[in-house]
Structure formats: C-alpha cells, structure tokens
Amino acid sequence: MDLNHQKDMLEKRRAEITGELGRIEDSLDDPMPQDWEDRATERQGDEVLEALGKADLDELHRVDAALGRIEAGTYGVCVKCGDPISDERLSAVPTAALCRVCA
After folding, report:
1. pTM score
2. Cβ pair 81, 102 in contact under 8 A
3. What are residue 77's DSSP bridge partners?
4. 6-38: per-residue pLDDT in tens?
5. What Cα–Cα distance (Å) separates residue 63 from each residue in 44, 58, 75, 93?
6. DSSP output for the chain
7. DSSP string covering 16-30
8. How far apart are CA 49 and CA 81, in angstroms?
9. Rounded to 5 degrees, what are φ and ψ at 84?
10. How far is residue 38 CA from its own chain's centroid?
C-alpha cells in the first residue's frame, strides 16, 4: 500500500469536507423568511443541512484519525486486534481502523 497516495487522498477528502461544512454553515446563517409557510420550509431544509453537517463532521473525525495513524506509523493495523488491514479494505474504506474480522 502506497501511504503517500493514501495520505494525499485523505487530505483531499478532508479539504472537500471542510468546504462542504463551510457552505452548510453559511446556508444555516441565512436569515429566516418572514412568511410562516416559507419559514417552515426553510426550517425543514435547515434540518436536512444539519444532518448532512453531522455526517460530514463524523467523516472528518474518521479522516483525521486515519491521518493520525499514518503519522504514527500504525495505518493499516487493526486498532482492536493488531492484525494487518488488507490493502483491498483500505482501498475501499481509506479511514478503516478495523480489519474485516473485527469490523
């Protein structure tokens, strides 16, 4: 497994997520409309954006953890059992902290 490639890929994904979070935050900061029906629709949209933001934050934490494992030299090692995580699994799920058996 090419760690430099994995690191580059994770850093690019981190930048994408950070940008998405910024756009979500900007949208949530927009003033609410005065009309009650429009306000209700806007609130529903805000709830969706908040859910997307939470999912992005969760993924950001996983990306940061994977980057930390790369820096620590433990990337590709299962945090539960210590066995190697297969290259195929890391290619499919670059943030994987567990081997297939432990997952």
Report:
1. 0.82
2. yes
3. 84
4. 999 999 999 999 999 999 998 888 777 677 776
5. 29, 9, 12, 10
6. --HHHHHHHHHHHHHHHHHHHHHHHHHHTSPPPSSHHHHHHHHHHHHHHHHHHHHHHHHHHHHHHHHHHHHHT-TTB-TTT-PBPPHHHHHH-TT--S-TTT-
7. HHHHHHHHHHHHHTS
8. 37
9. -65, 145
10. 31
Query: In whole angstroms, what is the distance from residue 73 CA to residue 51 CA?
Result: 33
CA distance 40 to 56: 24
CA pair distance 70, 30, nearest whole angstrom: 38
Q: How far apart are CA 75 and CA 8, in angstroms?
A: 14
Q: Which residues of 50-60 are buried (b: 16+ CB within 10 A; e: fewer)?
A: eeebeebeebb
Q: What count of other Cβ atoms lies within 10 Å of the Cβ of residue 19?
A: 11
Do 103 and 96 form a contact (C-beta atoms < 8 A)?
Answer: yes
